Amino acid sequence: MKAVVKAEPQPGIRLGDIPVPTVGPEEVFIRVKAVGICGSDAHIYEWAGGFEHLKKCLPMVLGHEFAGEVVETGSRVSGFHRGDRVTSETGLTCGRCVYCLTGKMTLCDQRLGLGRIGIEKKGAMAEYVLCHGSLLHRIPEGVSFEEAAMSEPTAVALNALDQVEIFPGDCVVVLGAGPIALTLAQGAKAAGAFPVVVTGLTQDQSRLSLARTLGADETIDVEKEDPVEKVKDMTGGLGAAKVFEVSGSARAFNQGLDMVRKGGVLVAVGIYPENISVDVTRRLVREMKAIRGVFGGSRLAWSRALHLMASGKIRLAPLITHRLPLEKADQGFRACLEKKAMKVILFPDSSGFS
Ligand SMILES: [Zn+2]
Ligand SMILES: [Zn+2]
Questions:
Q1: Are 246 and 269 in contact (CB under 8 A)?
Q2: From ligand 1's centre to the CA of 39, what distance in Å?
Q3: pTM of this prediction?
Q4: pLDDT tens readout for residues 144-169
Q5: How far is the CA of 88 from the centre of ligand 2 (A)?
Q6: DSSP state, 334?
Q7: CATH code for 164-293?
Q8: Rounded to whole angstroms, how far apart are CA atoms 261 and 237?
Q9: Distance of CA 166 from the midpoint of ligand 2 (Å)
Q10: How many whole angstroms from 38 Cα to the centroid of ligand 1?
């Protein structure tokens, strides 16, 4: 079967022909209908450093954001049948540790050892993929394969929202205008936040206008306006109740801490290349602000992601800027890295493309 393979510890990928896997008793064999390129896939494509630990996984088949159709189920899998439309969580966890038992699966120490799809295990940028039966979620009616392929980033956005309590009428600011940021903003809106504010750079104009289309009440171009002043103005000098920092910028992080009101919470979702210094005495002690971090999606967030897609409260199709056959994966990766793409979806069954 054809697959997008990362074979060498250097930039790039190639389209390979790999053997069709055999199905284990607890596994499900899925025909991939749509698979997204995640920021992390693009980083692995680039191989710019910090990936030495993945060298042992090569050759890798990338792709963990996907949806497809069940072709065959292992002898011990129940509840799924041939033809079912499904998406899968990224990887197994032990199910017994304090983190698994409290719903914080991404903190499970066994997670990497058990293997994640698209990293330690063969991913979904291929005609078929094998998944553990316990990780599957059925795609609700009305949700397309390409939307369901975005369940993972949606689960990440919901898991971020789950870190704080959002009350109706809370001002929520999302710093950043990428796919996770715009999904998070829609989730905040669904939770009753008002106003929901999204920030971006001048080059993010089209993303900010998409944010407004998807329900953001205000957007701020941080290169043209001071986001801290603007948020204070909007809230009668108070500041935002909750701020989600998704951009991964140290400057935005500190602005987030400035614009959140006293007693409010800043949630760090981004990946920060450098350490960030914070005025702990002023911001955390005297002003009783809190900083939380969040990593990955939780199992509960996964099924809610699919429900919110079905309800139309979270719209993902407008985030897709590129739809490409699997053969043109390289073009998709380059569009991501050149920041020309919001979301790229690849289709292994390219019969619909010319
Ligand atoms: Zn992802
Ligand atoms: Zn565990």
A1: yes
A2: 7
A3: 0.94
A4: 999 999 999 999 999 999 999 999 99
A5: 18
A6: H
A7: 3.40.50.720
A8: 9
A9: 28
A10: 4
Distance 152 CA to ligand 2 centre (A): 19
pLDDT value of position 201: 97
The reported pLDDT for the residue numbered 353 is 57
Distance separating alpha carbons of residues 92 and 79, to the nearest angstrom: 18
Distance from first CA to last CA of the chain, Å, rounded?
A: 20
- Output the CA 214–ligand 1 centroid distance in Å: 21
CA of 89 relative to ligand 2 center, distance in Å: 15
- For ligand 2, the distance from its centroid to the CA atom of residue 292, given in whole angstroms, is 21
CA of 270 to the centre of ligand 1 (A): 13
Distance 237 CA to ligand 1 centre (A): 37
> pLDDT above 70 covers what percent of the chain?
99
Superfamily of domain 2-152+297-352: Medium-chain alcohol dehydrogenases, catalytic domain (3.90.180.10)
The answer for residues whose C-beta is within 8 angstroms of residue 282's C-beta and 6 or more apart is none
Written as six digits, the tokens of 341 are: 């793409």
Closest ligand to Cα 38 = 1
255-306 pLDDT, tens digit each: 999 999 999 999 999 989 899 999 999 999 999 999 999 999 988 899 999 9
Counting ligands in written order, the one closest to the CA of 93 is 2
Q: Where in the chain is the domain with CATH 3.90.180.10?
A: 2-152+297-352
Beta carbons of 160 and 184 less than 8 angstroms apart:
yes
DSSP H or E stretch at residue 275: none
